[in-house]
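Subject: sequence -> structure tokens, single chain

Hey, anyone have a minute? Need the predicted structure for the following. Not urgent.
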Amino acid sequence: MRRKYRKPPIVEAICEFSFEPGQPWDGTLPGLVYSEVKESFPKKRQQAVFQLGIQIAGQNPAAAPLFGPPAATQEAFSRPLFLSEDERTLIQIAPDVLTINKLRPYSSWSDLKPLVLDVLAKYQKAAQPKAIRRLGVRYINRIQIPLAEVQIQDYLVAFPNLPEALPQRISVWMQRSEIPFDELGTLILQTGSVREPGHEGVVFLLDLDFVTSGQPFGVELAADRIETAHEKVELAFETCITQKSRKLFEEIH
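Reply:
Had a minute. Here:
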């Protein structure tokens, strides 16, 4: 049985799909997607994205440095965003990528999953991809503790293990693990401390992202695949937190 909390620490839930394209990407496709989703996502914005590249010697001899590393170049482009009326749910469109973000307050997976599948179906109608290359389900949690200093292990099971010769105190920390689940995919587990303006206590990060692997698959399999990904993220969440954290989140019995 899934545990429920009155004050879940989720600040953002993300479902992302990467596609095998069925047609060349062009600038009209975001508009076609918007025409399908505008009833639920009426607001439109453009998000500036900067992509860093490397200038390779020989590609542009006049610009290439004579000595030292290749010069870095920066390319800017816009990414369309479609937002719900309250701006707490949004869709991001990039070439052959669809991302659905749900910001706090988060209600439940039973509410989010149908919305994700509905947006995916409308994207499929507009863009007509051949298949899904991979999908990811990610939950970003911030555990806010109203204390100036705590023992990490009182709230999180996944934390740094320091050698005994070092002081057993950490002011700032971050760790990342990638855990393969056989042919299903990989769980990316990130934990750490967060400095949050206006919060004088301790804040811990618990960032969980399950990404599928293997061959591309049909859109009709998306419901089962995102359910599996969510189950792995939920398993990781419950096994990474302690009873003190559950008390903090006000578990509903």
